[in-house]
Amino acid sequence: MYRFDKTLLMRLATLLLTLVAFSTSSYSQTRSSLSLTAQDDAFLEDLSKRSFLFFWEQADPETGLVADRARANGAPYDQSHPSVDVASSAATGFGLTALCIAHDRGWADRKAIRDRVLATLRFYAERSPNEHGWFYHFVDRKTGERKWRSEISSIDTALLLGGVLTARQYFRADREIVRLATLIYERIDFPWMLAGQSLLISHGWRPESGFINHTWNHYSEHTMLQLLAIGSPTHPINRGAWQAWQRLRLTFGNYTYLTFPQAPLFVHQYSQGWVDFRNQEESWYPYTNYFENSVKATLAHREFCLSLSDKFPAFTENVWGITASDSAKGYRAWGGPPASPDIDGTVVPSAAGGSLMFTPGITLAALKTMRQKWGDTIYDHYGFVDAFNPNSGWVNPDVIGIDVGITLISAENLRSGNVWRWFMLNKEIPRAMQLAGFRKVRRAMGTRLKVRGELRELRHHRLQPCGASISF
């Protein structure tokens, strides 16, 4: 007779709960194929067009570099403001993707959009400062020169590449766009960013001090970076890098998922704005499907916010969301669960906005409720302000490019799946996923197969380690 320890039985119970959850109404609302009402689509159209305006108006027309942030009402900063003419490589990656969406939907003159894409790619291919093909995090919007002593950033370069490679496929009939985009990607020396490590990519490099000590050594927003590196046709890293980083699973309520303590919700969103993980899972236990993981992360995060309602009464069923943002006390990289001590009741609309592609039922309701309840106070020229605190009355006057960008991309993936489709046409990405050990699954059977696999593992005492697990 078999003997099972408590940990194994709890793991099986959690998996069985997941199977049940997928048959419930809350999970039935998470499919990206949810049929949108005309009212829902009109709301997303307005939000998306306003979001696009940020990338159209806040980019330098000569370089294409997109501002890191701007006033939500579109007014210019005073020249003494520290963010005047500061661009972000990541925001520019979101911006290139926004240009493709706008060209497809006819939101601006299509020739002008193509010219902006071409100018941006030409700048990065021919003029932008770089180190082994990698780019600085913050730069001057007009010249591309380094700002704020920022680092050569691995993740910000990857987010830039998300836009570069999306443009390469959307404008694939344009030979010059394809040539420039390919040059930018194939020039990047991915092994150099390993900083002498065998498999872990560094967060970045500074000319004054060399490589940053921190590496991408646990699950975070870096999954696209890993695939770009493994799939590089010129400077790839070892396929084993995909399994080199730690996978920590947390349990909150009925949801067990891959994350890290106090993680901002954006870590589950950014890479998946481009990489389509919906029908892919890792081919080893516990057969992680990253799309489903982000569904669970969003559902758990909403429940986490509701658990804070005794302290912050403004958190309700349709008013929730904490991810890295501004606050009344400055920028905060907050999230949860569990609660970080600096949480003060601030609501960040891009938390729900960035998960539109995962959980449209709850995220659309949240965004629509926020707009209906607070109106123009929090919804302006570029859409939602970056953050607001309904408990104290504080409203951020700014928007931040990457938060506007993930909202726009997530909305587009919900509406059409186009960003996923365009990006995945880059043959390097499916190839990298294959090298990393992904396999296709039939979505309807995915969870059942995982349960059956778990039962087999228990029966034969062959459960494989999957990293640490923590419950809250």
Folded structure, characterized:
The protein has helices at 6-21, 25-28, 38-57, 89-105, 110-126, 154-170, 175-187, 223-231, 290-307, 349-353, 360-374, 401-415, 418-424, 428-436, 443-459; strands spanning 69-71, 86-88, 138-140, 152-153, 204-206, 210-211, 249-252, 255-258, 280-282, 379-380, 383-384, 388-389, 394-395, 398-400, 438-440, 469-471. α3 (38-57) packs across α4 (89-105) and α5 (110-126) packs parallel to α7 (175-187). It is globular. β7 (249-252) and β8 (255-258) form a beta hairpin. It is 42% helix and 9% strand. The strands form seven sheets. The chain has a three-stranded antiparallel beta sheet with strand order 4-5-6. The protein has a three-stranded mixed beta sheet with strand order 8-7-16, with helices on one face.
How many structurally independent domains?
Answer: 1
Strand order of the largest sheet: 4-5-6
Task: Tell me, briefly, the overall form.
Answer: globular
Class inferred from helices and paired strands: mainly alpha
How does CATH name the architecture? Alpha/alpha barrel
Give the low-confidence spans. 1-10, 13-32, 444-466
Radius of gyration: 22 Å
Largest sheet geometry: 3 strands, antiparallel
Task: Give me the number of helical elements.
Answer: 15
- What distance separates the N and C termini? 33 Å
**CATH class category:** Mainly Alpha
Overall pLDDT metric: 90
